[in-house]
Amino acid sequence: MKVILAGYNIDATIIDRAKAGEDVSALPLTPETVSVAYARISRDPSPVTELRQKSIDDVEAARRSARAIVFEMNHQSVAEHATFNFDILDITRLCVEHLEWHRLCSYTEKSQRYQELFGDYYIPKELEGEGKELFVKAMEDQNKMYAKAYPILLDHFKAKYPHMTEKKRDLRMIEGYAKEDARYAVGLATKAQLGFSANARNLEYLIRSLRANPLDEVRNLGDEFFRLAGAVAPSLILLTDPIEYEKEFGRKLDESHFQKTRPEAIWRVDGLLDCCARVRADFPSSGDVKLVDWTRDADRATIQAILHSHSLAPAETCQTVAGELIESGKAKEFVRDFLTHANPWEAATREFEAADFTFEVVLSAACYGQMKRHRMSTQLIQEYDTLLGYTFPPSVIEVGLEDEFRGNYERTSEAYLELANIHREAAQYVLTNGHRRRMIIKANARELYHISRLREDAHAQWDIRNVSADMLALAREKAPLTLMLAWGKDKFSEKKNELFNQP
Ligand SMILES: Cc1cc2nc3c(=O)[nH]c(=O)nc-3n(C[C@H](O)[C@H](O)[C@H](O)COP(=O)(O)OP(=O)(O)OC[C@H]3O[C@@H](n4cnc5c(N)ncnc54)[C@H](O)[C@@H]3O)c2cc1C
User: Fold this and answer.
1) What confidence tens digit (pLDDT) does each residue in 114-134 have?
2) From atom 18 of ligand 1, which residue's Cα is the shortest distance away?
3) pLDDT over 90 (residue 202)
């Protein structure tokens, strides 16, 4: 893995001086001066432009202030004014999962849909000894499966969509279909690259958490962020340093810092496992999605929120009026009017945050890789579970490769179970994009609008399109008015016309 500090913000007056030909190498080329100047706004009446200059003139004093304000006074949000960009090369898909677990950051990643894979994988340090042979064999077999499937799937899509074989752009699309389906064969040790941006507050927290991870690769990533960002902004990336941490809190910075729960305690809950066999599913479900909780009376809650933010009436009145609108049959017209200017590019308004939905989804690693990017939701995951079966791309079945894919999945599961005896967490590197896990996603209707627009859309990958269509179908049943325009971008105009042409 290679991590490169690609950028960070420095005071624009320094940039202007450099552009004017001045040698600025002795000036503080760090985002700390901006953060500290903003932090001083709270108590110092000087204009902020002067505060910025003061920080530039005495960067050591600025660093002392940053430390005092951010850590001693706990005014951590000022560290958000410092931003860093990183290039990350040769990182595994599994390590990307650990990185992207952190929601308040920005990521753009190599797509296995748009780029062909050439068998680049990482051998985890934890499995370098006795597990190495088995691991390498599994990786090689998976990559052979990919290499065999890709041209077959490409021919299949060319035959299926002959009108898309002439223009370069269309052909690239077809190649994308084949790549995105062939990649279900390969493992989470496959290498990726991404651009990553974070502010100093998030970066510091993320470094602490990465450095306490059981996987060597993930810990290395944390160390690299610390080395690179800590050198530029030592007063903001401070408490990721074990020595400073111990000085500040009087205890060691180690894995226990992140063990806020006791995983073993769960096994003491009587009957949890027995219960799995006894309880039959009674949550509403569609495909691999269950709706496990939702705001009762969700439409009333949305209408109540709309009334409240567009009037001077108190919440009780809005609740009563919302109920009356529903009983009188006028609620649909009311919500429709409110959505008159809705379009497929702009977010639904905040009032749609009044209705919440919680789903349990069984999804493939390929699908999880996409769903985890929806940051405005609460997501909880279980480990991948070989007992949950595998996801087969429909095209793989159509070309008759289902049995070979199943063999690849099953051999991988066997290798995983064996490798787990050596190192449970590192064994996950071997699992493929077709292995599955359970995930809880809690999202409000505003975020569901967004998920639906992007992921129910024809451009979306089929796996996440199916999952989001199931999520939306279940939510629409509970909140038909709130979600009346939550559709993929491609269907939006048609659905809106239908709605507005109704009497
Ligand atoms: C067809 C398609 C192809 C894609 N291809 C790729 C790809 O090749 N590589 C890749 O890396 N990703 C890809 N993505 C993922 C995409 O870039 C988004 O990460 C993902 O769809 C999540 O959506 P989102 O970022 O809009 O918002 P969410 O995280 O769902 O958040 C909802 C909204 O909140 C706001 N928001 C959330 N976080 C922030 C923030 N930090 N700053 C500002 N606003 C914020 C935005 O308005 C956002 O729209 C693809 C997505 C689609 C639909």
Assistant:
1) 787 787 999 999 999 999 999
2) 373
3) yes
Interval 302-318: pLDDT, tens: 999 999 999 999 999 99
Strand partners, 194: 88, 109
Interatomic CA distance for residues 294 and 161, integer angstroms: 41
| Helix ranges (DSSP H) in 91-131 | 93-100
Distance in angstroms (rounded) separating the CA atoms of residues 76 and 62: 15
φ and ψ of 382, to 5 deg: -95, 170
pLDDT tens readout for residues 166-194: 999 999 999 999 999 999 999 999 999 99
Strand partners, 4: 87
Substitution site in 108, 343, 345, 375 for ligand 1 pocket (most atoms within 8 Å of beta carbon): 375
Residue among 454, 463, 465, 467 whose CB has most ligand 1 atoms within 8 A, to mutate: 454
Domain boundaries, the chain: 2-87+194-257, 296-350
Tell me if 108 CB under 6 Å of ligand 1.
yes
pTM, 2 dp:
0.93
Q: Judge: domain 2-87+194-257, CATH 2.70.98.
A: no
Atom of ligand 1 at shortest range from CA of 370: 15
Q: Is 376 close to ligand 1, i.e. is its CB under 6 Å away?
A: yes
